[in-house]
Amino acid sequence: MRDQIELRAVDLDRLVAADHPVRVIWDYVQGLGAGLAGAGGAGAGAHAGSGPGDAEIAVALWLYATVEGVGSARALDRLCESHDAYRWLCGGVSVNYHSLSDFRTADPELLDRLLSESGDVVAPM
Q1: Is the pTM of this model over 0.90?
Q2: How many angstroms separate the CA atoms of 110 and 115, rounded?
Q3: d(CA 93, CA 30)
Q4: CA distance 40 to 109
Q5: 80: nearest Cα among 58, 50, 111
Q6: Torsions phi, psi for 120 (to 5 deg)
Q7: What is the reported pLDDT for 38?
Q8: Measured between alpha carbons, how far is 64 from 25 in angstroms, rounded to an integer?
């Protein structure tokens, strides 16, 4: 029956190829380390939901979305549920459009600055 719920085991790491551009963005964000302290405002951890990696996930999601031409928190939220590269970036952490929007508006210059500083690393792919 098509209306039944189906549970599936998913190996998140296999969702994207080893040479997929989303991995370049994740590596870049991981390299920022302390540079993300306070990213998204003081309450960013509370918005995203699960701990210290929340700012990294939100920054990586927004960087990848921006490179891909996605500027809407609602569209990004849908991609996090349906698109493998975005699901991989989430790494099993739940996000929603409201937390994504709050993160983006808490420090509007953050992603612009990171995109500028990253140069060719996260250039349109």
Answers
A1: no
A2: 9
A3: 16
A4: 10
A5: 58
A6: -80, -10
A7: 59
A8: 7
Which amino acid type is present at position 81? Answer: E
In a 10 Å sphere around its CB, with 0-12 CB exposed, 13-18 middle and 19+ buried, how is residue 72 labelled? Answer: middle
Using CA atoms, how far apart are residues 116 and 101, in angstroms rounded to an integer? 21
d(CA 82, CA 92): 13
For CA atoms 72, 91, 31, 39, the dihedral sign is positive
Q: Are 103 and 47 in contact (CB under 8 A)?
A: yes
The count of residues in the chain is: 125
CB-CB contact of 81 with 43 (8 Å): no
Structure tokens at 125: 């792919």
Q: What is the pLDDT of residues 62-102, one digit of tens each?
A: 999 998 999 999 999 999 999 999 999 999 888 999 999 99
